[in-house]
């Protein structure tokens, strides 16, 4: 009986062990990297954003529209902008938003899902 109790406790503790969520960290290239590299992102609302990074620029595509954004240095994370939009974030989380007074998000909580060829 004692062996059965020990085995049951061991089995139970294995079932309740919290597992860390898996993240799909796909590193963004350095801003000054001249080699174009594409990354597909999935955002809240199942919106898909594709970004091609190359030499201080990012071509950001959402819903068939593409913006060519320029890199802007920032203390934390990354930021690419043009006169109308901004692609910014840090680590594996990004947001595409309009520039200006209301700064309406077009796609938010965007996480990388895969590299694009």
Structural summary, described in words:
- This protein has one helix and eight strands; from the N terminus they run H-E-E-E-E-E-E-E-E.
- It is mainly beta.
SSE inventory with pairings:
Layout: H1 2-16, E1 37-43, E2 47-54, E3 57-62, E4 65-71, E5 78-81, E6 85-90, E7 93-98, E8 105-116
Antiparallel strand pairs: 1-2, 1-8, 2-3, 3-4, 4-5, 5-6, 6-7, 7-8
Main sheet summary: 8 strands, antiparallel, barrel
Shape: globular
Count of spatially separate domains: 1
In quaternary terms, these chains amount to single chain
**DSSP, total strands:** 8
CATH H-level superfamily: C-type lysozyme inhibitor
- Integer average pLDDT: 84
- Relative strand content: over 45%
- State the helicity in percent bands: 10-25%
Strand order of the largest sheet: 1-2-3-4-5-6-7-8
Rg calc = 21 Å
- The number of helical elements comes to 1
Give the termini distance in whole angstroms. Answer: 60 Å
Question: SS-based structural class?
Answer: mainly beta
Catalogue the unreliable spans. Answer: 7-22
Which architecture name does CATH use? Answer: Beta Barrel
Looking at the structure, the CATH topology is Lipocalin
Sequence of secondary-structure elements = HEEEEEEEE
- Under CATH at level 1, the class stands as Mainly Beta
């Amino acid at each position: 009986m004692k062996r059965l109790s020990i085995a049951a406790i061991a089995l139970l503790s294995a079932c309740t062990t919290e597992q860390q969520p898996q993240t799909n960290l796909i590193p963004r290239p350095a801003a000054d990297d001249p080699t174009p590299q594409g990354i597909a992102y999935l955002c809240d609302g199942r919106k898909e954003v594709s970004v091609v990074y190359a030499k201080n620029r990012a071509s950001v595509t959402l819903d068939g529209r593409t913006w060519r954004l320029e890199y802007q240095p920032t203390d934390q994370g990354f930021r690419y902008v043009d006169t109308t939009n901004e692609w910014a974030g840090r680590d594996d989380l990004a947001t595409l938003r309009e520039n200006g007074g209301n700064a309406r998000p077009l796609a938010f909580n965007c996480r990388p899902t895969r590299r694009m060829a």
